[in-house]
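sanity check this:
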Amino acid sequence: MLFTSYAFIGFLCAGLIIYRLAPIKARPYILLALSYYFYAHAGLWCVIFIASTTVVTYLVTVKMGAMTAKRKKYLADSKDILAKEEARNYKARDKRSRRRVLIVGLLLTLGLLAVVKYTDFTITNINSLLDLVGSEGKIPLAGILMPMGISFYIFSTVGYMVDVYREAVTPTRNPFHTALFISFFPQLVQGPISRYGDISKDLFDPKPLGIESLKLGAMRVLWGFAKKLVIADRALVAVKLITGNPQEYTGIYVVAGMALYALELYADFTGGIDITIGAAQMFGIGVKENFVRPYFSKNVAEYWRRWHITMGTWFADYVFYPMSSCKLIRKISGALKKSRLPRRAAQRIPVYITSAVVWFATGLWHGASWNFILWGMLNFAVIMISQEFEPLYARFHGKFDGRIVRPDSAPYKAFAATRTIVILSCLRMLDCYGDVGTTFSAFGSIFTGGAAGAAGTGIAAGAAGAAGAAGVGGFISAVGLDWFDVVILLAGTIILFAVSMLQRKGSVRGRLFAAPFALRVGIIIAVAVAVVLFGAYGPGYDVGQFIYNRF
């Protein structure tokens, strides 16, 4: 059930009516039923997967919670007769026992994700190795269909189990509450990756709902529809044409495709998250923000602190920091400190190792293919190189501060943000083209020319940068657009930029609803009309799937 489908709109409206009419104590169970009904539209097999994950998560967290409670009670009852050494040993034994339970839970949940998502990838690579050694035998692909949203809800469950192990949260003993946390429908498709401690109170202990949350949530949903249908799906037409025909669309078309993909990806993903957060708010559920004006970032590291925030913090809290403090990394760090390496190198190498693992895992999470793995490692390389050159940047700015451009000036910030977007657009080509060789070929064509021959003289003129209207018009039509589309995309980009600028001073929706009634209603109607009139929406139109649905 796609977020922008008529079926979802009807489902959301009906669900809100049922939820708001139900007694407060029954609302978590109503929400659970709605979530499973929503998920069942993806197929019964998807329900089996998520239900299995829920059973494992419930048993593991309840077991660890019971062990923690038993330990605390024993220590409290025995504090006057238990020696410090005995108490310490008892705590250590309890921690080892809980760790074993946690490992079982992680193996079952992450193992399920690995089997579903990476079996065919593994088989394909084994077959490639067999080809290299001249073997004629081939392992047939398993062809396992990946359940919708499995990467997101598995990560949420892993975070929950680890938090229970760390005693950061107290697990629920209500299996329906565990099921609701894992299956909450607005965030099931493309995140955010919620933490149990952040969302459980709203889910399990709902408060009386006011009209304010309904209005603000509905406006957020409408804004998400506008981003997705008016901007993202319009840019998608050109992006699919350019990247789907890499032999014909080269040179300047590649540049145009990457620029349009940057716009499409932002409008698509943030639009989907707007619908998620807005829909959850209409039910009185607070969901974490997942973006903070990422295209204003001055470098790639800052971008990843602003883009898909819940994924970044998940990898930091559950992979990077635990790995940084594990015995192996501590041993490597100790050995490097005793070596003859420069002090900075000895300090940084363990960080390199840990960061490389995180970015390898991030790439693999995005997709079971080498293009995503390379994408992750290139992000790692750019960030590490940038960090290593920070002392050089500081000396440069110290010497030339005020003579060229101040780092805190608007022109420099604009330059830095543009540079970041260009770097990221180059890296994203691995996502767009889906193949490492094709990506490098397309990237190389930017510098070697070759502006596509299949589109005729109008395209050639446009590709060559001709200023004439015929050349520009031919270029636009060659990528599947027309002047109306270009005007809409330009207007949409300007509006997105303006809204991002306004968000720096607080919630745009909050200020909108504090504005005079006529202005408020006028803007809302204008956005709704834009979705209906300009959105890629309606009978016979194949609305594009959200990009992050496939992850």
In short: The chain has three domains: 6-208, 211-287+483-551, 293-450. DSSP finds 22 helices and no strands in the chain.
